[in-house]
Amino acid sequence: MSSASDGHLGDLLSALLDRELSPAEEVSARRHLETCAFCTTELSEVETARSWVRGLPAVDPPFGFLERLTLDAGRLGLPRSSTRRRVGVAALAASAAAGVALLGLAPPREAPVSPSVARLVEAHATGASAEGDPVSRLAPLGVPVSLRR
Amino acid sequence: MADEGAPSWEEVARTHGRFLYTVAYRLTGNDDDAQDLVQDVLLRVRKGLESYRPGSLEGWLSRITTNAFLDDVRRRRRRPVDLFSDEPDRVVPPTPAADVALEAEVLPDDVQSALRRLPADYRSAVVLSDVVGLTYQEISDALSVPVGTVRSRLHRGRAMLRRALG
To answer: Do A76 and B43 touch (CB under 8 A)?
Structure first.
């Protein structure tokens, strides 16, 4: 990398690229470039690097992260560290249910199922046997019973 | 007390969250630290710790984000045992040297990885200029350094990126 002290343009090249030079400086820099292959190459290199960074896409935060922060009005003052943040996020999640309706960010509600899943399980357990249908044979008998109310 | 006209932190999170996260991610280079940084920024906004001047909201947020990031880098440097050093080679494996200089073959992950290995001051200048799009004067104001320093850090950062990526 060149510098102005060694007779090259140095960081003026980035400034030229970014249109941050005064008109007089720009004229001078362009005149230098006409005869200096070293600076011309360097200009091309920093222009390439600039285009790489400019071409980086926007980054989406992890699902639910901003919503959790938005929903919490009282617990955001958590110290910074990954461990503390995880604790904080858990606390934020606990308060999310209360805050979600206020901000109109509620996810779509699931349509009610009729008959209810609990009733279906109960009915299935009542009718199931070890020699019954192939699906029932895959599950231990005790599980459906434990779901009875 | 928050400044007159300053956006609420809820508004910032809702309306500018993706922008904020992008800047945080480009500065820190990973999701965990980016989340911490965004949280820190929102906390500063909420507490009214950062004076708001009507103008570019994203410029204002970028300044807060970068300063929060640099504060954290300085804090980590002061720790005697630092498991989460900003020193890039201890955190992110070096990008394999590119043997082909075709620009099209440089992937965003490679650029992010090389960006992560820049010194924090250079990285901040590059992100503020080439991700956020601030002018040198705006970066100078954000970082409280002279415009000449911004120009130097930016140019050195770009030159290092170019070398790192072939």
So the answer is: yes
Give the model confidence (pLDDT) of B36-74 as tens digits. 999 999 888 877 666 777 778 888 899 999 999 999 999
| Residue A123 amino acid letter | A
B-chain residues near A50 (CB < 8 A):
130, 158
Touching check for A15 and chain B: CB below 8 Å?
Answer: yes
Q: Do B128 and B142 touch, CB atoms closer than 8 A?
A: yes
Q: How far apart are CA B23 and CA B8, in angstroms?
A: 19
Q: Is the dihedral of CA B20, B21, B25, B30 positive or negative?
A: positive
pTM of structure: 0.68
**Which residues does chain A have within 8 Å of residue B9's beta carbon, measured at their own beta carbons?**
76
Q: What averages of pLDDT result for each successive group of 10 residues across chain A (149 residues)?
A: 74 96 96 95 96 95 85 53 43 42 44 52 51 48 43
Please name the residues in contact with B130: beta carbons below 8 A apart, sequence gap of 6 or more. A50, A53, A54
Give the whole-angstrom CA distance, residue B92 versus residue B94. 6
Of residues B18, B151, B159, nearest to A61 (C-beta): B18
Does the interface ipTM go beyond 0.95? no
Chain A closest CA to B121's CA: distance in Å?
A: 16
Report whether the peptide linkage leading into residue A115 is cis, meaning its omega lies within 30 degrees of zero. Answer: yes
Instruction: Return the ∠ at Cα B80 (arms to B78 and B73), rounded to 5°.
Output: 35
List strand residue ranges (DSSP E) for B38-127, in order: none
Q: Which residues of B touch A76 (CB under 8 A)?
A: 9, 39, 42-43, 46
Determine, for residues B21 and A59 on separate chains, whether the beta-carbon distance falls below 8 Å. yes
Q: Distance (Å, rounded) from C-alpha B77 to C-alpha A94?
A: 35
Integer Cα distance of A67 and B69 in angstroms: 22
Distance CA B10, CA A33 (A): 50
